[in-house]
Task: structure prediction
Amino acid sequence: MSRRHGPPARVAKTAGAAAITAAAAAVLARAGYATLRRRPPGGAAVWARTNHRGEAVTLLEGPAAALGAALASALAPGLAPRGRAALVAAGAGAAAFGGYDDLAGSGDRRGFRGHLGALAGGEVTTGAVKFGGIGATGVVASALIGGRPADVIINSGLTAGGANLLNLFDLRPGRALKVALAGGALIAGTGGAGAARAVAGPAGAALALLPEDLGERAMLGDAGANALGAMLGAAAAASLPRPARVALLAGIIGLTAASEVISFTAVIERTPALRRLDMLGRRPAAGPGRADTGGTGDAGGVAAAVHAPAANGGRRTPEARGVPGAGPASSATSP
Result:
């Protein structure tokens, strides 16, 4: 075998394909964000939220991230057609149901227990609709990937579980995007060439919009966090061997269950290394003597809820970021 076709050449080809996809996702995400800011569907007020500083932020980052990641993945060089279709289905479905919860949800019910408890009482919340919709999205993406029945079940869980888990981290500026980038790197490092190409779309979109998130000018919301998480889950489903997928799914289930009873934010605050990473690139915490800590259970948001009136009929929606004495982002209202 010549050196031209040997492992170094394959590695370079894979890296090049992944870089092209990531760059395309970044350009598309930034272009989508700029376009949406100029012509926001329904008007800017529909997408506006007020954060803990009393500053306006927009939810338009989420649709832009989903659009950039999905379009780049659809055109990604080196990806199998089924893998491309699964990534697009995961991103589009999760963004649609997440966006519905962003715009129509009240934020009164949070976490699996909140939404399922309401459902048991006969109340169908927007979070419950999103929960069912993203579950169906996971099944569709998994069916597109194919495999044995056991693989379809595992892969459905990875896609739907990834969507929900990343959303649980969207409680501080930049946190969910940092987790998405770290998760993408982990999947790429574990799964090799195919995994690197698969995660490039969501990773490129996340990196491109990170400055807007860190600067507290915009937020992912459910649409963006659910979409990027679902696409990373689908990327893992399409590229990792079964033992790695089972281990990853177990981790997702464990963290999701833990989020019902403990606060990820509190854990991060108590761990110096994690706190430094969490604060990297962020503005200082608001107000003197106010530590940036969360409440009990990130799935249910932080302890005390503060709502900002929205323009859509006066409905009160969660504020953009959870902080001490303030409520969670609308993205924290995940099922």
Observations:
- The beta strands are 48-50, 56-58, 307-309, 316-318.
- The chain has one domain: 17-333.
- Residues 17-333 form one domain.
- Residues 1-6, 288-297, 299-335 have pLDDT under 50 and may be disordered.
